Amino acid sequence: MSKSETRRFTLKDIFDRFRKDSNSCEGGDCHCGPDQNPSHKPEKQDGFEQVFNAPQNRRSSLKKLTASLLAGAGAVSACNPVKDDKAKEKSQISWEEQFKGNYKLMTEEEKKATVNRLVRSYELRTGKALNMSSKGPEKDVLFGYAFNISKCKGYMDCINACVEENNQDRDSQMQYIRIHEMEDGNGLNFGKSKDNYYHEVPAQGHFYMGTQCFHCEDAPCVKVCPTQATWQEKDGIVVVDYDWCVGCRYCMAACPYDGRRFNWSEPNVPEEELNKNQHYLGNRMRKKGVVEKCTFCIQRSREGANPACVEACPTGARIFGNLLDPNSTIRWVLENKKVFRLKEDLGTEPKFWYFMD
Q: Which residues form the 4Fe-4S ferredoxin-type domain (predicted)?
């Protein structure tokens, strides 16, 4: 048996001991089991099984387990009578969150349970309500995006709307969308473009072009993720389970479109600015040390609405829709306009097209 396998067994043995100790309390005031019975045995922790059965990254699994055991020590001590019911509930939520599995592998019941925990945790912490969805992809829907270079005037309303809608960190001024100011005659030369410009737009002799996550059909970022924290959903949206991201940033290095952002510090969104209409795989609050990106505003698109950037664009340069719907506007654009995609030679098949009138 290798050293790493010995360590894995030892940690599992420690967890089993915690589980055993937490269900062997003596005394009439213990509430560990549903019947207050010391012989009560808890149900199998699906998240725990995923930690040990995930073959793709043993190191991250051990890291998660170690953090969980530390939290578990607090949960075990909670077997003693606790006068503060809210504190007890917070401890239970923290324990269950530590051992939840990868969202991609959860059942629908498990998805609802983890969303309910996050909503309840927010209520306990702030005393305010939060709406979080776990809605999955609709049948016969494949989202795509088209950008009309002729119409974009560089106003950046799309960026501001995206920041507000998706609860992006205000301190670092994180932005999923980039608007590139290109000089006429230089073609699509991103090396000479300006992403930050502080003058009246549109500027004479320039045109404007937006980039963001392109939700590639053959996404390089998905291939390199060691923990399977990112994947493509059936409706084409490439998503991230922030709780399984370990911040290695392989996905950032693999993305040829600069579509991902890393949280170097704890994200800050003032309470009064927080968008409380959220999706688990979208604009829920992230944490320090994880990667995030555009999700086609999954909290909106899966409810039949356009992404915030599309709605905010004052010139109608942005078009979003279902590629499988022959009557959709985006299908009309693809069939009637001369369209192109960036770096098509890479074979990533981005679901983001550009065109001009």
A: 236-265
User: Structural domain boundaries of the chain?
Assistant: 3-101, 143-355
Is 121 within 8 Å of 300 (Cβ atoms)? no
The residue ranking higher by pLDDT, 250 or 92, is 250
From the centroid of its chain, how far is CA 219? 16
CA distance 258 to 158: 18
CATH number assigned to the domain covering 143-355: 3.30.70.20
Listed residue (247, 229, 209) closest to 101, CA to CA: 229
pLDDT score recorded for residue 65: 52
Helix H, strand E, coil C: the string for the chain is: CCHHHHHHHHHHHHHHHHHHHCCCCCCCCCCCCCCCCCCCCCCCCHHHHHHHHCCCCHHHHHHHHHHHHHHHHHHHHCCCCCCCHHHHHHHHHHHHHHCCCCHHHCCHHHHHHHHHHHHHHHHHHHCCCCEEECCCCCCCCCEEEEEECCCCCCCCHHHHHHHHHCCCCCCCCCCCCEEEEEECCCCCCHHHCECCCCCCCCCCCEEEEEECCCCCCCCHHHHHCCCCCEEECCCCCEEECCCCCCCCCHHHHHCCCCCEEECCCCCCCCHHHCCCEEECCCCCCCCCCCEEECCCCHHHHCCCCCCHHHHHCCCCCEEEEECCCCCCHHHHHHHHCCCECCCHHHCCCCCEEEECC
Is it the case that residue 184 has pLDDT exceeding 90?
yes
> If residue 46 lies in a helix (H) or strand (E), which one and from where to where?
helix 46-53
Give first-to-last CA distance, the chain, whole Å: 66
pLDDT confidence of residue 43:
47
Return the top range by mean pLDDT from 14-28, 77-91, 138-152: 138-152
Question: Beta 131-133 vs 277-279: how paired, if at all?
Answer: parallel
User: Do residues 210 and 180 make contact, with C-beta atoms less than 8 angstroms apart?
Assistant: yes
Reduced to 3 states, what is the DSSP secondary structure of residue 282? coil
pLDDT band at 46 (very low <50, low <70, confident <90, very high): low
